[in-house]
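Working notes for the structural subgroup meeting. M.R. asked for a predicted model of this chain before we commit to crystallization trials. I am recording the input and output together here so anyone reviewing the notebook later can reproduce the run.

Input as submitted:
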Amino acid sequence: MSTVEDWTTQVTEPQASEPLVVDDQDRQVFRVHRSAMTSTEIHRAEVERVFGKSWLYVGHESEIPNPGDFVRRKVAGRPIFMVRGAKSGNINVFHNSCTHRGALVCRRDSGNAKVFQCFYHAWSFDSEGRLNGVPDRQGYSKGLDYDELGLARVARVESYRGFVFASYDPDIIDLPTYLAGAKDYIDLVVDGCGGSVEIIKGTNEYSFNANWKLLVENSADGYHAQSTHDTYFKYLVFLGTELQGGVIGQPVKLGNGHAVIEYSSPWGRPVAKWEPLFGEDARGEIDRIRAELVDRYGEERAHKMAEVNRNLIIYPNLIINDIMAVTVRTMFSPTPDRVDVTAWELAPIDEPASLRERRLDSFLTFLGPGGFATPDDIEALESCQQGFEGGGVVWNDISRGMGRGPMANDEEQMREFWRRWQQQMGTAADRGGAR
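Returned structure, recorded in token form:
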């Protein structure tokens, strides 16, 4: 094969001994075999090797501020729940399964409870996971061990700046080491919100027909913005926003598969860049926030907080987009061609009502279920998945920017994700399927 084009289009049958991810630094070519998004065998392997061996986002401490507060989640397809212990005050994350016969013990998405009772046989557990009630206790032998039959904890749980992560791997490295350079960008988000943040109540949940890795790519893809979201940019111009000079920025590799694109903001930000969308009465308030950031952190860091966007990938499936609002998003594919998405909005605690209203409006206008961006993105990613089904072309090209110092609309952030994915998958990501 003498040309890249030959390599890209003429391969019709994958070779079982070759990797799905081809990273050719000499030729400045990066390819991902499309079976990574379509193969059932690959999907089964990544559930074990990627999701079973990584730190996964569960929720935020602000969601359970009081003893007994809980939220129910699926994390990598597994039912769990997070509860603040009534006695210890600790964040507890349990597998959502009764130790008697397996039924769910937490059956609401959120709330406060002193006891979690299994509806099947009424075994009950407290917020620390201890078994504390068994109907007809005398019907059991003396060997019934209440301590042994407490709720099963997820193997590892740690938090960073209020973001709670869990891992199903008891031997995984500690969370700060795992997060590596991503910690600095979480710090920018939290400090830019005054140091204390909360998840606003309510979630944006949706599903569509594509693979989860496509949404990870898209969430930090500056290349598609102008073409796919052209209507949004025209809307901003109509309102009087000045979009001059293009987007200036770069992708940054953060280690362990994490990466970010940071770029000058072409739109307003509640923290703290005014635009006409916010209205004239908001100018003074936003200027005050900007001045407070300068006093606290200095001009350079305040500029990054107020006027620079961040689309952050925390490997494998957490996205924090600090753009016209701060969105926290996770995704998981129960099958190779379907993805379930949950998104939350992050905001400063005790934010004035006027600012909160603008923040939520910004979030919904661009990223909400009926916003300018989300329907566009879903259409694009479903279209990709449909294109994979046709065959003929078997490689995705993710080479943009390899031949130069990368820019914000290049693809180095995606390459960093795929390198870590290939490393975790090992021979299970050889072309020809998992072995």
